[in-house]
Design brief:
CATH architecture of chain B: Alpha-Beta Complex
CATH topology of chain B: Aldehyde Oxidoreductase, domain 3
CATH class of chain B: Alpha Beta
Shape of chain B: globular
Oligomer: heterotetramer
CATH superfamily of chain B: Molybdopterin biosynthesis MoaE subunit
Structural class of chain A: alpha+beta
Number of helices of chain B: 4
Shape of chain A: globular
Strand content of chain B: 35-45%
Strand content of chain A: 25-35%
CATH superfamily of chain A: Beta-grasp domain
Number of domains of chain A: 1
Largest sheet of chain A: 5 strands, mixed
Radius of gyration of chain A: 12 Å
Chain lengths: 86, 151, 151, 86
């Protein structure tokens, strides 16, 4: 993983609908998880659901996070639907 | 004394209970909860479930929940097991068992852990039926039950 | 499907759980509670308990409690076992197990049955220690927990 | 059991302190469980605890009852300390 990227992971319905379980994206300077979501959504098509419709939960470095949570290069950021375990 | 297991393997409630019971002469109360695959959820005619999780994060979040439970209640032993992968009707999905001196603490911690498992731990369930499959939606009831414990 | 047993015999939680689980494809949740003889109660250094009951009345009152629980919650199976006679440290005293479609109903009914067992069913506990014995007093906490279910 | 008596049963601490697990007592005409308690307490000594000090619970014919519950000849009436099972 290059130092100027973040690793993105997708789970469950999002993983299926985006047809990928993850990717590396460039991340220059200070960003938030919400900035990343908006950047990915701008790809259009199924990616728009990241900011529209059903809520998306966020984890940064495997801890629950919010759109305003800062993201640094090297971080692992995950986007997924509301959880339904138990 | 606590143990967390997440994986495909089934579990034996008798063995889990035996370990909870083996927590010393101060234990007076053991509360357990087991979740099973049932025949109707969002869909009817459910024949199985597919359970996905976020490996690594899942275990950490559960360990942290157990720490929170131990701060709120006096607990002598806690065991949490959650299965992933493909399960069939009547299979066991989840086990939460708590041993305490007193029943209030055992019941409260057991319910707390189940409620928060449903709303804050990265597991996702897909219902499988003869005619198709469907990612389960998070329930308002579950959100309400999770919220009652504050944060 | 429900069963009540009151007597001197010990019970096997694994067997009770197996019967609760064997309650059909609609069962999604099993909550159980087990009470054990612990080393301190009103007295410390407890080595055992002597449990007395009112034969005949005990069973009727428990059957009636289960009827009430079935009116309040959707339950698929209920099992209540309470031992009497002389028990030693870490022995099992009581088991309440409930199977339901949903965890809220299973937890609520299990707690209701335990709470009312403590306040309205004719059982009495005597604590036994090296230095003497003592009839356990009814606890204000237990009265409060019993009262929360209304009547 | 004669038709003009009620069967009384004592449990737990009361059974031990009264040194009996039960007896038959005359019960002519309409009575309440509370009347019976007062009659037994009038024996004095340990019997006074039936109306003084720690509360006494009552069952009539194996159902929880109150002091005002009517008692008929032939009934089974039980007096005991607050219950402590579970």
């Amino acid at each position: 993983m290059a130092e100027d990227t973040v690793t993105i992971r997708y789970f469950a319905r999002l993983r299926e609908e985006l047809d990928t379980d993850g990717e590396s994206v460039p991340c220059a300077g200070a960003r938030t998880a919400g900035d990343l979501l908006a950047q990915l959504a701008s790809r259009g098509g199924p990616w728009q659901q990241l900011v529209e419709g059903q809520p998306v939960m966020i984890a940064v470095n495997q801890a629950m996070a919010r759109p305003e949570t800062p993201v640094q290069p090297g971080d692992e950021v995950a986007f997924f639907p509301p959880v339904t375990g138990g | 004394m606590s143990e967390v297991r997440v994986g495909e393997a089934d579990f034996d409630v008798a063995q889990e209970y035996a370990r909870l019971r083996d927590s010393g002469g101060g234990t007076g109360a053991i509360a357990t909860f087991t979740g099973l695959v049932r025949d109707s959820g969002d869909l009817s005619g459910v024949t199985g479930l597919y359970l996905e999780h976020y490996p690594g994060m899942t275990e950490q979040v559960i360990e942290d929940l157990i720490r929170q439970a131990r701060e709120r209640w006096q607990l002598r032993a806690v065991r949490v097991i959650h299965r992933v992968g493909t399960l069939k009707l009547t299979d066991q999905i989840v086990f939460v068992g708590v041993a305490s001196a007193h029943r209030e603490d055992a019941f409260a911690a057991c319910q707390f852990l189940m409620d928060i498992l449903k709303t804050s731990v990265p597991f996702w369930k897909k219902e499988l039926t003869e005619s198709g499959e469907h990612w389960v939606e998070q329930k308002d009831t579950d959100v309400r039950l999770g919220d009652r414990w504050g944060e």
